[in-house]
TrEMBL record:
NCBIfam families: PEP_CTERM. InterPro entries: Galactose-bd-like_sf, Ice-binding_C. It comes from Haloferula luteola. Residues 1-22 form the signal peptide. The keyword Signal applies. Keywords: Membrane, Signal, Transmembrane, Transmembrane helix. Coiled coil: none annotated. This is PEP-CTERM protein-sorting domain-containing protein. The chain crosses the membrane at residues 194-210.
């Protein structure tokens, strides 16, 4: 029994040393810093911005419906081009982007009225806005439970072979139909690669199981 206890104490120490999920690189992930109202076109570097042009819908920050905090993004769709965007600016080095596995998530709410939809895009980029694919998808009214916050999440590898890519972009675009959506708590972070600590933890789990089987 004492040997088994020591084994699990050692295992807990190894697990404590294992790397956690990387920090969220999206500045103002909950739309708390952005001033309430129509999103301006502010360039997108570590701020939420929007190009709306002749867009007849609405892309704004509001204080009524939110998952957490005091504010959330409101998207009222229409059949014209517009885009909401942010990027990590100069916060990341190329070595922190290329080849890394990234995890993303955000939460969406709708009342279920209408036929609206929009796209999300996470892109690998650089100072010249030369974008490469990361992850994307489409959010539709029919794909969400009305009046309920739904988490959208996934993982992808930022690997396009360009060692100069040093930015991550998060966009909402592709608006169509007529519906209102709310978005909150946007997250984008790196997923640690399995290292020596992870392999050691797996070995210790296996050894503990072996000891239990052979002590019976």
């Amino acid at each position: 029994m004492k040997k088994t206890i020591r084994c699990f104490l050692g295992l807990s120490g190894v697990l404590a040393m294992m790397p956690a999920m990387g920090a969220n690189v999206i500045v103002d992930s909950g739309f708390e810093v952005t001033t309430a109202g129509i999103l301006p076109d502010s360039g997108g570097s570590n701020v939420w911005s929007a190009f709306q042009g002749g867009f007849s819908g609405s892309l704004a920050v509001q204080e009524t419906i939110k998952l957490s905090g005091a504010q959330a993004l409101e998207i009222t769709t229409a059949n014209e081009f517009a885009i909401i965007y942010t990027n990590t600016g100069l916060n990341l080095a190329a070595s922190e982007v290329e080849g890394m596995t990234w995890s993303y998530s955000f939460w969406v709410y709708t009342d279920g009225v209408g036929d609206g939809q929009f796209d999300y895009q996470i892109l690998v980029s650089n100072e010249l806005n030369q974008d490469a694919g990361g992850a994307s998808g489409t959010i539709t009214v029919g794909g969400l439970t009305p009046n309920t916050w739904t988490e959208i999440s996934g993982d992808f590898v930022a690997a396009d072979g360009d060692p100069d890519k040093n930015r991550m972009k998060f966009n909402f675009t592709g608006f169509s139909g007529s519906s209102t959506f709310y978005v909150d708590d946007v997250s984008l972070s790196t997923v640690p690669e399995p290292g020596a600590a992870g392999m050691l933890a797996a070995a210790l789990f296996g050894w503990a199981g072996f000891r239990r089987r052979h002590r019976r």
